[in-house]
Specification:
The complex is a heterotrimer of chains A (347), B (328) and C (148). Chain A is an alpha+beta fold and 347 residues long. Helices cover 31% and strands 21% of the residues of chain A. In chain A, strand 11 and strand 12 form a beta hairpin. Chain B has 11 helices and 8 strands. The chains are: A alpha+beta (347), B alpha/beta (328), C alpha/beta (148).
């Protein structure tokens, strides 16, 4: 629930000062922010203030590619040369700013952290990229019809994953540091910030409440877990039929992280690469013998849903979904995960 | 009969589905049903006893349902009824020609297609992208968005590929719903292909590369295409290895050039690949280049009849060979 | 100071019965032609998967030549006639996309045409010498360590 706030917590930033604010934060480092590219909003490196465009419910592609690129070189090698050369972990120059991430995507980044920079394993390149980016979340005011964050324990004003969070109010932004790193970086822009009052926070709460109320649940999350226990349930026969197995849902999902490791060679040189992979592809579980334990779309669809809404809950204590809705918006055949889960709950 | 009841197409489709399923003529019916969004439909699979009234027909029924036929009918000997627009029926004709599905096991419910609506084009004409309700009446698309109601001309909102459609009426069909529209020999071609071809060569390559730079190698284009039914796609072969999994330009280019070349003489220009792409790659431009050349050079179109010969499995002794290299 | 002349790498797919024999005839006749071609012998021009040509360009070829029997003379009767259709479409498609058409060549050379073979190689090589290395398609290891 809402934190008890002492007066003076949080600041006001005038809307027209946003560009200057970000420039002060970025300093001599890079700024990555939302810009309009052919009618969609994507994160790009911002080099001119005109590029910045915050008129979106959410970005088309999730920001996971900044931390987990589609293709990553692990090491390079050459015949005749008995060494392998590990790809440099680029720490980048100091702290770069990543602005415009929505609360769902910011929360998703913390899920990826658990996998790639967690207790069991630490990917040095992932960790370096993570360490070099300050995440400035832009909280939501008007969700898309495909958003359903509140159904999966996220919220339009969730602060999880943010170093700094901006709440958008009609006349200004309410700026709040969430982590120590966020607090430190905000000092560079102190000249643009004035103290927030109780009223400002009340307005923020109202706005967040409006946003929450406009979100459609689509299914009852409390009844889902119990229902997902049945691996052989008859509804699996029907729920996969529309699915093309194209993998768009997994590639766009901010929490999906499955990968493949292969070698790419040209003449005497090569590199080992980690690329995005998808459990929706038949190849994902193809054995060298030719056997495939998930031979049809039925098994693969079942796996995806169970992984996200059952197994992840058991392994990590969280559903592997933040309700960003990209899988719904971009599925070529219009599959809506909320309807699928509703059918399971009501079966 | 009196005042003849003009059935809405959706009602007619539902009636046909009900009849076929009840009479045991088919095991499965594939059509469209609405999702929670007024601008999205999704494929609807019906077996006997399923509710046929879910079936809809509107300007958002863009998916090419033929893509499901090879999977549904391939191994199992089931009979399928399927809703097919002009382009979908040409996919079906091509699949029959290539011996992938059986004509006898199909009941094709053909729709005389007025062209499908591009949601991006509709949204671009609204002050707010949120759409609450859509009605299509008399060539107009009535859109309710944030309390305001706008009436758009249907022809202004069609997909580029639909604007250039030569065969809106199904070429192979069992039951036709709606009045057959005549084929268009000289269609209103969208200008994007023409505009592209008049550019200087270096610029064309620049455009091609910059479009494909967006590709994330998800292969949705391939999965949405009814013609891409290979058990093992060349993109995934390891022996020989045509492509690496990386989204380097070199691999991405080879993937798309390969896929489009594999469609030579087979592509029916339905646009499913372009619509499936999550990265907004302008695939339609490049697929249409090859389809136009096939038409121009060989006077050939895919999917007109299941009996027609395949383009690359035939030849003419006098095929043009002006491109051959001579010594002088 | 003489600038070093760029020597293109050309992959030549030659059909066994006609073009390869023609190339062989050029050899035994001691006809000189540029040494830039790397020959891959195939049973018939109809055997050529268009992707071989694209793949050759990706792997480092600056140009590709495919040569087969004259139409009507194919050892397998009609292989080259099927090939002709594939080649026409491949060449036109790539040309439309902006690839220089002179980098992808097709020819008919019979087993008796040693001179003709040499002339075609001479022509193709000289042309490619002026064009420089293939500027696109190539797999480039320098690209393998990209920044954020």
């Amino acid at each position: 629930m809402k934190l008890e706030l002492e007066s003076g917590s949080g600041s006001i930033l005038r809307r027209e000062d946003l560009n200057r604010f970000l420039n002060l934060l970025q300093g001599s480092n890079d700024l990555y922010g939302p810009t309009r590219v052919q009618g969609r909003h994507e994160i790009r490196r911002i080099t001119a203030p005109e590029q910045l465009d915050t008129r979106y419910a959410n970005l088309a592609m999730s920001p996971k590619s900044l931390f987990l690129p589609q293709t990553e070189t692990l090491f390079t090698f050459a015949t005749g040369n008995r060494k392998t050369s590990p790809a440099a972990a680029r720490a980048g120059s100091g702290r770069n700013i990543l602005f415009g991430v929505r609360p769902c995507d910011a929360m998703a980044i913390t899920f990826l952290d658990r996998i790639f920079s967690g207790e069991d394993y630490r990917d040095p390149r992932y960790a370096a990229r993570r360490a070099s980016l300050i995440v400035i979340t832009l909280a939501c005011t008007v969700p898309d019809p495909t958003c359903f964050c509140t159904t999966v324990d996220c919220a339009p004003d969730s602060e999880i994953g943010a170093d700094v969070i901006l709440f958008e109010l009609p006349a200004y932004y309410l700026v709040k540091p969430v982590t120590r790193a966020g607090r430190d970086v905000l000092e560079a822009a102190a000249s643009l910030l004035t103290g927030a009052t109780r009223n400002d926070w009340d307005e923020k709460h109202r706005s967040a409440q409006n946003a929450r109320q406009s979100l459609r649940h689509g299914f009852d999350p409390n009844r889902l877990t119990a229902k997902l226990g049945d691996f052989q349930a008859p509804y699996w026969e029907k729920l996969h039929r529309e699915c093309l197995g194209c993998g768009v849902c997994t590639y766009l999902c901010p929490t999906c992280y499955c990968f493949d490791i292969t070698d790419e060679t040209i003449k005497s040189r090569g590199r080992r690469i980690r690329t995005w992979d998808s459990c929706m592809f038949p190849r994902f579980t193809q054995h060298a013998s030719g056997h495939n334990p998930r031979p049809t779309q039925k098994e693969r669809t079942r796996q995806r849903i169970l992984h996200k809404f059952n197994y992840a809950l058991k392994s990590h204590g969280r559903k592997l979904c933040v309700g960003c809705g990209r899988c719904i918006a971009f599925c070529p055949v219009g599959i809506d995960i909320r309807s699928v889960l509703k059918e399971i709950v009501e079966s | 009969m009196g005042a003849a009841a003009v059935k809405r197409p959706a009602t007619e489709i539902a009636a046909i589905a009900r009849e076929l399923l009840a009479a045991g003529k088919i095991d499965l019916f594939i059509g469209y049903r609405q999702t929670s969004s007024p601008v999205r439909t999704t494929p609807c699979f019906l077996t006997p006893h399923d509710d046929v009234t879910r079936l809809v027909w509107n300007g958002f029924c863009s998916n090419n349902l033929a893509v499901y036929l090879t999977r549904m009918m391939g191994r199992k000997r089931i009979r399928v009824g399927v809703v097919a627009k002009g382009c979908d029926s040409r996919s079906i004709a091509n699949l029959i020609r290539e011996n992938q599905i059986s004509r006898e096991a199909l009941v094709i419910v053909g729709m005389a297609c007025p062209g499908m609506l591009d949601v991006a084009k509709v949204r671009a004409k609204l002050a707010d992208p949120g759409i609450e309700k859509v009605e299509e009446i008399d060539g107009q698309v009535i859109v309710s968005s944030k309390g305001a109601i706008r009436s758009l001309a249907r022809t202004d909102c069609l997909y580029d590929g639909c604007i250039g459609c030569r065969h809106p009426t199904p070429t192979v069909v069992d039951r036709l719903v709606g009045a057959a529209a005549p084929d268009r020999k000289s269609p209103v071609l969208d200008s994007t292909v023409r505009d592209f071809l008049v550019r200087p060569r270096a610029e064309r390559w620049q455009i091609f590369e910059s479009e494909l730079a967006k590709c994330i190698r998800c292969h949705a284009c391939r999965n949405a295409c009814p013609n891409c039914y290979c058990q093992e796609c060349f993109a995934e072969q390891t022996s020989p290895e045509w492509l690496s999994a990386s989204n380097d330009m070199s691999n991405t280019l080879l993937y798309h050039i390969g896929r489009i070349l594999h469609q030579a003489g087979r592509c029916v220009e339905c646009g499913a690949c372009a619509r499936a792409c999550p990265a907004n790659v302008n695939l339609g431009l490049f697929t249409r280049l090859l389809a136009d050349e096939v038409r121009e050079r060989f006077a050939f179109e895919s999917g007109i009849s299941p009996e027609q010969p395949g383009l690359l499995s035939t030849f003419n002794a006098d095929d043009r060979q002006e491109f051959m290299t001579e010594p002088e | 100071m003489d600038k070093p002349v760029f020597e293109p790498k050309i992959v030549a797919f030659l059909c066994n019965w006609c073009s390869y024999a023609g190339a062989d005839l050029a050899g035994v006749s001691r006809i000189q032609y540029p040494p830039n071609i790397r020959v891959i012998r195939v049973p018939c021009s109809g055997r050529i998967n268009p992707l071989y040509i694209v793949k050759a360009l990706q792997q480092g070829a600056d140009g590709v030549l495919v040569s087969g029997c004259h139409p009507g003379d194919c050892h397998y009767i009609s292989g080259n006639l099927f090939a002709r259709r594939k080649f026409a479409l491949l060449k036109k498609f790539l040309e439309q996309l902006g690839v220089e058409p002179e980098r992808i060549r097709f020819s008919w050379v019979s087993a008796a045409e040693g001179v003709r073979f040499a002339q075609i190689i001479e022509k193709v090589t000289n042309d490619l010498r002026t064009r420089g290395p293939l500027p696109y398609f190539r797999k480039d290891p320098a690209q393998w360590e990209l920044p954020l």
